[in-house]
Amino acid sequence: MIYSNETYQIIGAAMEVHKTLGFGFLEAVYQEAMEIELARRNIPFISQKRIQIQYKEVTLNQYYITDLFCFDKIVVELKAVSTILPEHEAQLLNYLKATKTKLGLLFNFGEESLTFKRFVNTPTPIRANPQL
User: Among 57, 89, 109, 115, which residue is least crowded by beta carbons within 10 Å?
Assistant: First the structure.
C-alpha cells in the first residue's frame, strides 16, 4: 500500500474532526476543522490548491481546486453528504489525473460514522483497435 504512514495520519485527523464535530455541518466547517487538525499534527498540507489542466501541452483556463493537498503527494477531497455518489468519486479521480498524483482520499463527514475511500491513480494502458 503506497503512502501508508501518511494515509494513516490523514485518516486519524479526519476521525478526530468527525469525533469532535459529529455530522450535519456544511463542508466548509469540516474543511476548516481539518486544516486546524492537520496543522496541530504537523501534517504538511496546502488548502484549496489550484490544479491547472493541460491539453496537448497547452494550459487551459479551466482548473480544479482540491480541498487539501497533503504531504505534497496526496489529494484529499472532503464531502458532507448523505452518501458518496459516483460523481464524487469521479471528481477525485479527475483531480488525480490532472495532478498526476498517485493517491487520493475521499472523506464523507455527512454520515453518522465517518466514511472514506482510498483511490490509487494507475495509468490506463492504451489498447490497439483491431478494427483499424
Answer: 57
User: Taking the domains of the chain in order of start, what are their residue ranges?
Assistant: 4-120
Whole-angstrom Cα distance, residue 47 to residue 67? 6
Kind and range of the H or E run holding 118: strand 115-120
Pick the CATH number of 4-120 from 3.40.190.10, 3.40.50.300, 3.40.50.11270, 3.90.320.10: 3.90.320.10
Residue type, 68: L
- Report yes or no on whether pTM surpasses 0.85: yes
- Secondary structure (H, E, C), 5-58: HHHHHHHHHHHHHHHHHCCCCCHHHHHHHHHHHHHHCCCCEEECCEEEEEECCE
Among residues 96, 93, 98, the alpha carbon closest in space to that of 55 is found at 98
Q: Return per-residue pLDDT of the chain as tens, 132 residues.
A: 889 999 999 999 999 999 999 999 999 999 999 999 999 999 999 999 998 888 898 999 999 999 999 999 999 999 999 999 999 999 999 999 988 899 999 999 999 999 999 999 876 644 555 454
